[in-house]
Amino acid sequence: QVQLVESGGGLVQAGGSLRLSCAASERTSSTYAMGWFRQAPGKEREFVAAVTWSTGFTNYADSVKGRFTISVDNAKNTVYLQMSSLKPEDTAVYYCASRRSGLNYRMDASYSYWGQGTQVTVSS
Fold this sequence. Notes:
The protein is mostly beta strands and 124 residues long. The chain has strands at 4-7, 10-13, 18-24, 33-39, 46-52, 58-60, 68-73, 78-83, 92-99, 111-114, 118-123.
């Protein structure tokens, strides 16, 4: 059973930055790639960014492109989400998740394991 542990959330003013971390307990076929999702109150969970461990290939939601950067540290089995130029609409619980190869990176149903979530609040 893969465990994903997130950290780094908090309260920040609009225009500020935060870095989220997600440490994976192990690397298996179920952790071919990693994704970050978020869920705001009263809204559905949405895709934010995705990355593959081996190639570092990344994908982003249009709403965060140019502001957020996803990256990996293979030695630490950790994936990061660097968030800059934060906006109040970025306020949400952020989750990291892992998926197998060949699945749609934008769909949360593609991901097998999920972290517990970390709250990000951006004040105006």
